[in-house]
Amino acid sequence: MTHAPMAAVWEELGGDPALLPGVSTVVRAGALEAALPVRELARACVGACALAAAELGARRAGLARVPRVSVDDGAVATAFVSERHLRIDGRVPVNFAPLSRFWRTADGWVRTHANYPHHRARLLDALGAPDDASAEDVAALLAERSAREIEESVYDAGGLAVALRTPKEWAAHDQGLALARRPLIERGGTAGRDDGTAARQRVLAPLSGGGPLLPAAGVRVLDLTRVIAGPVATRTLALLGADVLRVDAPRLPEDPDAHADTGFGKRSTLLDLAADRRALDELLASADVVVTGYRPGALDRFGLSPEALAERDPGLVVAQVSAWGAYGPWGGRRGFDSLVQVATGIAVTEGSPERPGALPAQALDHGTGYLLAAAVLRALTERAERGHGCVVRLALARTAMWLTDGIGREEGPGAPADLSVAEPYDRPDAWLSERAGPVGLLGHALPPVSFAGGPTDWSRPPGRWGTDPARWT
What we know:
- With 473 residues, the protein is of the alpha/beta class.
- Helix content is 35%, strand content 15%.
- The protein contains 17 helices and 16 strands.
- The N and C termini lie far apart (46 Å).
């Protein structure tokens, strides 16, 4: 048995294959069971992230060897559903609103996403439904229309709805074809400015002993992400010691439960990106990493496209995550994990003849988040060697195509896996913890990224959304 999925990821990250034998796996039956190889995807994403962290930590600490990495199916499976394990003073959060679900249409199925109030309003507007429409009212309206018609009309209104497609239909779709031509992890060097301006020199201080090995200590990460994938990436960087400052617009409140789940280790501030330009420029001037998670093009008018950021500062590491990719006919569309599963055929594969299904976790979100963190960590290692930054891009829909078409067929070279079989995964208790914080007593999943000498939990619980000053610590 080999590390084939992880070896493929590590190769795309530009990693040294000689490090792969330093990864061990604890196998637990019952973890992330599905028709598709979700467990293998999750292992590969988390394992690559942990190895990238260990590699950077070894370099900064002057270690002779990269610390060993351990991937435990139990820890990974628990973390991939962290939003379901979250408890706030004993309260169980609601992850999907009543209008975020599958619906029968005149010719098939459609899935909508209406967790945010503005998305709910746009969905109802597209359907000609009143603001107080019930789920039964919406079901009746959708049952009279075709799935593709609903998809387009709701999109035109600024809402979110995706028609159910088979894997074959998605493979023939123009967006599926555009994605298939791209790598799983897009990486490119920064071109820099052509006016002779020199890149700001960044030298991360060597790491000293006396505590956990924190590979990203001293790294300043500007976090312009929402929901799950991007926040999981930045939550992971915070675990590893980075100073992560999440920035949100005052007019777009985040769901407080989503913020609590992904806010560990971070600070959170509010900025009007147009009115508070000076504050934004000051943050960018000393940032090491900028992570964006809005739909492609949404931040361009603020000078925050990957290209503009890279031109502004060639030493910057810029990471972008999106639902559908920054190209193709759907490149500018909004999207969420649940909708990507529907479009790419996953819902058909995981469903039954009677009804579409879903993965056992929002694995596209979580998996892409750990891949994004891994790409940032590898870019920081390469920056120390080459002196320039990097632009990395990932898309949930491209991760979906890897899950449906890539992992099962991957026969590439990989180092022999160090496998041990442990008790089946039936209870997550061993990978859950509790801690008090500004938002209450939190029950939460522990981080799955693990390497010898590394951190086992975040340095701080999440604070209240938008209450920190807009400056670096």
